[in-house]
Amino acid sequence: MDLFSNLPDEIVCHILSFLTTKETALTSVLSKRWRYLIAFVPNLHIDNSVFLNPEEGKHKSQEIQQSFMDFVDRVLSLQRNSPIKKASLKCLSMRDSDSNRVDDWISNLLARGVCELDLLIYLCMDEYVLLSSKCFESRNLVKLKLDSLCIGVQPDMICCSAPVVGWLAEGIVLPMLKTLVIKSVGFYVDEFFLRALPALEELVLDDVFWLWNVMDVTVSNANLKTLTVNSNHYTGTISFDTPSLVYFCCSDYVAKDYPVVNMENLVEARISLLVTEDQIKRARAPNDYLLDEGDDNVVLRFENVGKLMNGIRNVQYLDLSAVTLEVLSFCCDSMPVFNNLKSLTIKSDENHTWQAMPVLIRNCPHLETLVLEGLSHHVADNCGDACDCVSRKGKGRSLTSCPVKVLEIKGFQGTEKEMDMVKHLLNYFLCLMEIKIYMNVDIKGRDLEAIVENMKHYNKNCNVQFLVNGDLYKEWRAQ
Ligand SMILES: *[C@@H]1O[C@H](CO)[C@@H](O)[C@H](O)[C@H]1NC(C)=O
């Protein structure tokens, strides 16, 4: 304590700013000087997870919540209008009636010039918090994260009538905002509100849903560089008008349609579409399922993904999930030519088809590196062009014109089927100079030796590397 007492104020403030505010407040009981200093800590981290205890009865938890809110009020009033840089607020079991209080806290922090604000709001069952837009006015805010957690609610219930944090984002004024992360929040917005954020560079929309019956969502911003959309619920269509976008990561449910996809400067895209097993079944056998379909035509929905692909056609690096590859087999007719694509990564699993592979490979005229994460796939009618599943006329045809130089195969297990596939790929990729095979299973030494020995006879024109658990195991050079 004595050691601390001798430290200058700025240093103590700095140390205090690493503690959560509750710890800071407890510490400050110890000395008058510290109590005085808590008023000047530049960072505020209020984390009520220490209070969170689902075992407690409802009455008890209301009491705790009341004292938590009083605590926040006390800290904020103690700090008056001293400037603040970063603040994170994890709010305990909030209710509809607490909305104004949260609004007041946000207003307080923004008025004091906070640059980074991280809000995590826990909701009780059946409760609802609405953040108003009037409190979102700041010339200093650079980074905003808004996250809600529903306690005791299944995530898939959220889109019905379960509790939500709603955000009235119309009329917000955040001219410096660069990063916006929104998770599990319902938007009460004019769908174009993102346009009003002139400095926005990074946007994450995770499990977001649009209220007021917004059927067609548009993500529109002239400046945006990176966009991550993850598990979002679209009732209708989604459009992206983001001409400066460089990085796009999409793990969304397939929307009904993609009317506008403007991403002409895109460099890297990772697409991992979410579909239900039922959607895949219906798409594979549309006639069997017509009766169940209602107004949702799954085949049409999958065909429209072609518009998304067309919008990202300028990418240099593309990463596709196994599901996405199967969805693409429904839009082969509209597949764009990926003129800039240098590196393509494709994940495979035994449940999804490779039917889009021939078209995809043919439409990458400048491909240099192909990474296949897994070789097994669901065998379907049109197999046999890029793969060797079915013996057919024109086998391997799509591969022969492909300029790919480097092939990487990940998750290789050395099965006979995989060996045949590698042989096939080595036969038909005529420009191949290097192949890297990654094995992450422990194969007994002798078997591995046999696999390597076998592979030596497949192709003598390219360098081969075997990597086991990340370490180089064997390699040989082209002859
Ligand atoms: C493939 O489907 C089966 C049966 O539905 C499932 O058990 C298995 O986990 C699936 N595999 C992958 C990689 O998703």
UniProtKB/TrEMBL annotation:
Record Pfam families: F-box
InterPro entries linked to this entry: F-box-like_dom_sf (IPR036047), F-box_AtFBL13-like (IPR053781), F-box_dom (IPR001810), FBD (IPR006566), FBL60-like (IPR055294), LRR_dom_sf (IPR032675)
PROSITE patterns documented for this protein: FBOX
Secretion signal, residue range per the UniProt entry: none
SUPFAM superfamilies: F-box domain, RNI-like
Domain F-box: 1-38
Protein name, entry field: F-box/LRR-repeat protein At5g38396-like
Organism whose genome encodes this protein: Camelina sativa
